[in-house]
Amino acid sequence: MKKRKLKIKNILILFIIVVIIIFTLLILFSKNNNRLKNIGYSNLEIKELEKLSKNELNIIYKYDYNSNLVYIITSENYNKDKLDLYLDYTLKNSDIDYLKIFNLINHESFKKDNIDKYITYLKKFDNIDGIIKYVNEYENKNINLDSTTLSFINEEYFIVDYLDRYLNYYENHKDLSYKEIVTRINSNLDYEFYTDSTKSDLTKEMYTLVNKYNYLEKDFVPDNLVSVTGIYARDKAQLVDAAYDNFVKMADAARENNLTIKVTTGYRSYNFQSTLYNNYVKADGVKNADTYSARPGYSEHQLGYSADLTNAKNVSFDDFENTDEYKWLKDNAHKYGFIMRYPKDKEYITGYIFESWHYRYVGVEIATYIYENDITYEEYYAYFLR
Ligand SMILES: [Zn+2]
Description:
Elements: H1 2-39, H2 43-49, H3 54-61, H4 69-74, H5 83-92, H6 98-106, H7 115-122, H8 128-138, H9 147-153, H10 163-172, H11 178-186, E1 198-199, E2 214-215, E3 225-228, E4 237-240, H12 241-256, E5 262-265, H13 270-284, H14 286-292, E6 306-310, H15 317-320, H16 324-332, E7 338-340, H17 347-350, E8 358-361, H18 364-373, H19 377-385
Parallel strand pairs: 1-2
Antiparallel strand pairs: 3-4, 5-6, 6-8, 7-8
The structure holds zinc ion.
């Protein structure tokens, strides 16, 4: 008898505990439910919101009803650490599409301190990337902002000092993309070749730019020239030591693949270039000669970091493109710091026909960047080195 009583008592206690737990849960549940309901959320919305953490719900309780909230929290780009910002700014700016604000806040370059400025521009323009870049980097530059300007600002290689030139060029070239216009202006193409010329900036040392807008003076001779001889040259040539050392490494690596790379010409003096160019002009006329030969002072060969190459058979420049040496260089030269200086399809930028044989030493880091991003040295120099 006594044993049975005890058992009933235990069951009763257990039952009471279970009932208490259920009630507590129900109260907690309906409390959330009521708070969200009081704010104005529908049962359907509440079902989604209840999947959030307690912290997130506490943030939601601080704000009025937000008809976009469920879209925000169920988006794959939803970031719970930014919930406060989403709610605050979508509610304060109901005249702007919530998705624009959501994307703005999620943007990789978004800075919380600048949010009010972003929002001001977001009311006028659609270009979120451009707005963020403008506010983060150029707001103090006194730029007259319109949607075209914002599009230029958004370009990867945008240079703020060139903005007026981009806009002028755009006026007459509306068929071109913003990207193409930035490429052209950064390469100086709003000027004719050999006009608007300036002395090459020699403080850039091994990165000095020599092209149809940047020239070396008659008496410029590079320091540290060394002779290229033996298996590394067709007859003999000269290169600046850094270019020479890396050329040797490159040629040795090529030899391991049974390829022979030799220098035909490295450094060329002003006077030598002068003779060469004048002979080409006599034979071919100025217009043609200019497409493949530099005017004296404008040749990269005078800098000492450039080499024209051939192979074991001493193939001519025109045939070099069809050699295995060229094929190897195309995808390996950058590993030794060399770039193909006058690539195919970039003739209008470099001002020279495609020269499969002409390589310029710029160091591994820059050569790799140029190789991977498929840009010319003109573009690289304008954006990173100028
Ligand atoms: Zn050359």
